[in-house]
Every structure is written in structure tokens, then in C-alpha cells.
Amino acid sequence: MRVRIAAAAAAALLAACASSGGGSGAGGGLSGSITVDAASSLTEAFDSLKQKFEADHAGTTITISYGASSDFATQISQGAPADVFAAASTSSMHVVGSEAVNPTNFVTNTLEIAVPPGNPAGIHSINDLAKSGVKVAVCDPEVPCGSVAQHVFKNAGITVRPAASLADVKTTLAAVESGEVDAGVVYVTDVRAAGDKVDGVTIATDVDSTTSYPIAVLKHAKNPAFAHAWVDFVRSATGQQVLTADGFGKP
Amino acid sequence: MTAARRRSGLGTPALVVPPAVIGLVFLALPTVALLIRTPWSRLGAIYRDQHVWTALRLSIESSLWATAVSLVLGVPLAWVLARVRVPGIGLARAIVTIPLVLPPVIGGVALFNAFGRNGVLGHPIHSVLGRDLPFSFTGIILAQVFVAMPFLVITVEGALRIADRGIEEAAATLGASRSRIFLRVTVPLVLPAIVAGSVLCWARALGEFGATLLFGGNVPGTTQTLPTLVLSVFQHDPADAPALALPLMAVAVVVLVGLRDRWLRPVAAS
Q1: ipTM score of the complex?
Q2: Using N-to-C axis directions, what is the helix angle for B50-83 and B137-162, rounded to 10°?
Q3: Entry pTM
Q4: pLDDT of residue A27 exceeding 60
Q5: Which domains occur in chain B, in start order?
């Protein structure tokens, strides 16, 4: 891989020298497009990173699909074409197996309870989610945010009977935003991204509600040089700055 | 005979055979593949799983409810569409076909806007009764009625249009009231169409996925139906998913066999 990157870098250098403008060397020789499959909780952070990257590298296009990490894991193992996979849990990355080249954790995220503005049902702690009559939305247990939620309920010693079990974290957030449920178990980053459309209720740290996000270039990536450049950018100081500003934790 | 036909150019042109075979194989292969890949030896174990059993029961119960609601509302609606001559009836017929052309997921979003806690009708219901329709058994039935009732309405309407009105007129001359004629003459007259429409409606309700996934909530044991369970199972045990498709495929076969005279033969004859 390293050889390939070196070759790509050399090619980039040559391309930069050959280009008449000279000043356009920032393009780094990357061209074409890549497809990134990313956990839906990464939507806001990756959208702004994509803009920065494409601005820095003229002529590049990054297509990002957001959804449940578990869906992507199944699709990638069934041969779905993608260059990079960024999952919300190591177990989703594990499903992909050897298709992922050196997965590395790049951020962490923590669960938080999202409630409609003003908190009409009076949710103040995770224990309130177990009360009868409280309508709670969670992610499907297969999806990372859902499996971490189950883990948290277990650690807190409570039984939550959710009203809705939804496809991914943004759908769960949407159920809270639209006021269809009294509370939803989402990530800290989703509550922050939703602005004043939801309020957040912190989950006590003793129930271990943190998950690690791995990212990897995929073995069958069509544009591996570009894919590696994107992963490096996400893990760079600039990338980490954007991610932590959105509420993600350091890996 | 065949030789004569071939000579006269009335036999099968060689040109149509390869595409026809490819087309048929393409349509058959996915279903055949499901049967090939079904883990027959583990079938018992898969179906003993509590979630599968509950999802199957929920699917059957909710789809039967949805068919019953569709019958009560749909047959009178079909009668109105077929017999009432007022301006705007064409618009009413177009409204009935909306769910047929609307992607089911959009149907789910639309149902939220209508019957959700903050929906057009859902909000007053929530304020007055303190009850919410989404994420409940009622919510599943609602989603299924929305997508399935049009099949019943359209089938019955078609039959009412071609039904012999002479018998109804005879009943009227003999002094039967309009409601009595509807219940004792019209309905029995189009009964085969009502049965066919109900079967189609039930099959569509049983297979409902998109609107149910969103509006129903997909919670195992309470609102997870067989089609939405298949998605969840496909995500963690893809090999088990074909086993869960079997009951739904069996229904498809029953519908095709049951309705072959009504649906397949006329198409073949025309």
C-alpha cells in the first residue's frame, strides 16, 4: 500500500510540474470520484469535511451515503461498490472482515437522550425511559446506536419497552423532532446537530454509553489513492478539529 | 402440421426464443434461488424463535383486520365510484389510485402527517383521546389499509360496471328498498369480485413493508411484522432470511392459483 501511495504522490508531483499554471499544485494530483459509506451520525461532520476536501483538491468528487452502519456492512460484504467505510461501531466494521484494509478508530461518540423542546414528558435521566406511558424511540438493535442503547439499558438495570425501533440514528432523531415520541436515544452529536429542534438529557457516565468509530479504505476500492487521501484527511488535525467541534470525542 | 406452419411462416420465429427464455429465467431465478438457499434443516429452529412466531402472528392478524376494514369501507366506495354520476367522481377515482402509485415509504411519511401526534387528524385525536396512532398495532392496520384498500375498490368497481343491472331493476319494481337491493342483490351479484379483491387486498396488506416500517415502529413482539423482520434478520443473519420469506411466498402462490381464472386466463386469451 505504501508503495502505491508513494507512486501516487510521485505521479501527483509530476502532474503538478506538468500543469501550466504551477499554482494549482494543491490539487495533489487526485482526480475522479470516490464513494464513502458512512454512519448517519457522521452526516454533518462529513458533509463539511467533504466540502473542504473538494475545495482543496479541484476536480475531485466525494459521494457519501449515510445510513445504518449495519446496513452498509451487509451491503459491502455482498459486494456493494464503495471506496471507504466509516462505521459507528467496531462490530459493524468486523462484519466487513478482510474487505476493510487496516481499520482505525478515528473518533468516539456517546449516547444522549433527545427530547422535544421543553421536554414535555419530563425526562431527566435514563431511568425515566423505563416509566410506563413514556414513548421512547431507539435504533434497531442491529444498528450501532441501537446496540449501544441496549447495552446502556442493561448496565442501568432497566427494562425499556420502546414505542419505535427505527432504521438509523437520524430516523430516531426525526421521530423526536416531529414530536411523535417523548424521547429518543441518539448520540451527543445528533442532539448538537439538531440545534433547537430538540433538547438533550445527558446519560450518566457510569453506564458506558460510548462507541468507537472505525474508518477503512476497502480492498476493492476503485480509486485507492483518493480513498487513502480522504481517510488521512479525516484523521488529520483539520479533520479531527471539525469532528470534535461537532461533539465527537478523541479515539 | 408443424412443418406446414413453419413453411407458411406461422410457427415460432427463432428471433423471439432467446429473449423469451432469458426473460422467463430472469423472473424465475430469484424465487428459485430463495428456495435453493433456504436452510431447510434449520427451518424448525428458525421458526421456533419467539420473534419469528410473533411477527408471523402479527402479520396475519393485522392483514386480516386491514382486509376487514377495507371491505367495510371499500365495497360501498366501489359502488359510489361505479354508479354515482356527479361532477368530481373522476377525481375521487384518482384519489383511490394514489396509494397504488405512491412509493410506500412516502406513504409512511404521509401517514405521519395525517395521523401522527402532530398530524392533521392525529393531533386532535391525541388532544381529545390521549391516544397516538403511530407505533401501535392500530398504526400497522392503518398503514396496510392505506396501501391495500385500492386493490379491493378497483376490482369491485370494475365488476359493478359490467354487472347486469336488470336484476336490480327487477328488485326495485318488486318494491325493495335501495339499501336492501345493495345488500341482497348487488353485493351477491359481484361476490366473486369481492372475494378476488379481498384476496389481492389481503396479500398486499400482508406484504406491506415501507409504510409499516416507518409508521408501525418495527418493535419485536409488538409492531414487527414478517416483512420488516426479514430486513432485520438480513442485517445480522443473511443466510436465515430466505427461510422467513417462505410464508410470504406461499401466500403469493395461493393467490396466483386461487385467482388464475380471473386474472391469468383473460390476459392469456386477449
Answers
A1: 0.72
A2: 40
A3: 0.79
A4: no
A5: 49-269 (1.10.3720.10)
